[in-house]
């Protein structure tokens, strides 16, 4: 099992870190088989698996339910679980209670939280309690209604300065890695140089220490539109739609099941059943 020490070494030696999201047993198992370095049980779960239009409805129960399936499928891979919307904002007690459940019940290796500011305390507290934390800055989808949409972040000098400062604060608070979502490549490059924990980019260019993509996006699986930063490495929509249509048509046309897919029985034995 890789650890934060492994990822720190990978940054130092400029070996890129591959990360992918997974939400269930088969996606986790195949990701581990492909030798992915880190799996994220993202709260993108809400959109790509549960059919919500944002990550906001996702609950701690949802994350535990799917997180457990993922760690069963990828028992030898570093798994990070997203703390969902408002599960780390109400009070310290509530935050620690939720973090304890997410970490203990899923048997994951780390939790991820979005933002800086008051969240820095959360990163510190969880780290002190023995829970490794991954930060997440730039486009932070749980704040989509405050940000005013899914848009690139850190484009002005002022926003870029704040993002750099927040990245340093997240490191200072004890985070083991930092996800940078939708930030200009040169800014992500600067942040990657200025902090000593690994940066994992999504829509943040090639200079990050690692990359993360959403499972369903990179496979074109159940999603129609892909953001600019997603490269589709497969087209499961086509594959799955064709297979299900073929099955449907063969049932309608009495082409399935043939003898090859049926259990046979001696005619005489059958005759006895008719009495
Ligand atoms: O939920 C998620 O999939 C994420 C990644 C996009 C980083 O947070
Ligand atoms: Na997320």
Automatic annotation (TrEMBL):
The entry's localization annotation reads: Cytoplasm
- Any Pfam family the entry gives: Pantoate_transf
Among its keywords, does the record have Methyltransferase?
yes
- Residues holding 3-methyl-2-oxobutanoate: 43-44, 82, 112
| UniProt xrefs under SUPFAM superfamilies | Phosphoenolpyruvate/pyruvate domain (SSF51621)
Give the UniProt record's GO annotations in the biological process aspect. Answer: methylation; pantothenate biosynthetic process
- Positions of Mg(2+) binding: 43, 82, 114
Cofactor binding, per record: Binds 1 Mg(2+) ion per subunit.
Q: Which domain of life is it from?
A: Bacteria
Keyword entries, A-Z: Cytoplasm, Magnesium, Metal-binding, Methyltransferase, Pantothenate biosynthesis, Transferase
**Cofactor field:** Mg(2+)
Q: So where's the catalytic machinery, residue-wise?
A: 181 (proton acceptor)
- Any one GO cellular component localisation term in the record: cytoplasm
Catalysis performed (reactions) = (6R)-5,10-methylene-5,6,7,8-tetrahydrofolate + 3-methyl-2-oxobutanoate + H2O = 2-dehydropantoate + (6S)-5,6,7,8-tetrahydrofolate
Q: How does it associate, per the subunit comment?
A: Homodecamer; pentamer of dimers.
**Function, as annotated:** Catalyzes the reversible reaction in which hydroxymethyl group from 5,10-methylenetetrahydrofolate is transferred onto alpha-ketoisovalerate to form ketopantoate.
Which family would the database say this protein is a member of? Belongs to the PanB family.
> PANTHER family from the entry?
3-METHYL-2-OXOBUTANOATE HYDROXYMETHYLTRANSFERASE
The name this protein carries in UniProt is 3-methyl-2-oxobutanoate hydroxymethyltransferase
Q: What is the lineage of its organism?
A: Bacteria, Bacillati, Bacillota, Bacilli, Bacillales
